[in-house]
Structure formats: structure tokens, C-alpha cells
Amino acid sequence: MYQVRVLPQDVMFSVGEAETLLSAARRAGLAFPHRCQVGACATCLCRKLAGEVTYRLAPVLTEKEQAEGWIFPCLAMARSDLVLTLE
Ligand code: FES
């Protein structure tokens, strides 16, 4: 299990290695923006400020977007504790 801190609300939730960040956030009762849950709508897009994620199916992100920390929580799985921002 990893710990995920979400800014600017500064709330925490736990996520297992095999579940997506969105799934874990919703299980924890967080109002995490989402629609399609399959990496198509970009509604869930947020920035990772710290930590590592991996994808079973890599979403379409440019190198610049990846360098800026953009991730798809509906597809991303944690590989370390994380800090995310919804700002
Ligand atoms: S919920 Fe649509 S891309 Fe993540």
C-alpha cells in the first residue's frame, strides 16, 4: 500500500499496487473529477508533484506533459507514495 496526498485539499488516501489512483480515491470517498475512467476524456487529468506511477496501458501524453507531471489517475497505479495536485 502507498499513501497519496492530494492538494490543494491536503487529503490523504491509500492505494494498493494493483488498483488505479482514481479507484482508490473514490473508495476513500474523495470527490475526484472523472468521467470515462478509461483514459479517453482527460477529465481526471492532474499533476504529480512527487512519486512514481506506472500504467498497464500508457495514455497519450507528450514528453513535455510527462515532464510537467501530468498523469491520468483513472489509468495510473502508484509505485511509491505520491503527492498530486488538482489545481
Ligand atoms: S476519467 Fe476520463 S480520462 Fe480519466
From TrEMBL:
Keywords: 2Fe-2S, Electron transport, Iron, Iron-sulfur, Metal-binding, Transport. InterPro entries: 2Fe-2S_ferredoxin-like_sf, 2Fe-2S_ferredoxin-type, 2Fe2S_fd_BS, Beta-grasp_dom_sf. The keyword Iron applies. It comes from the Bacteria. It holds the Pfam family Fer2. Its cofactor is [2Fe-2S] cluster. Belongs to the 2Fe2S plant-type ferredoxin family. This is Ferredoxin. It comes from Photobacterium halotolerans.
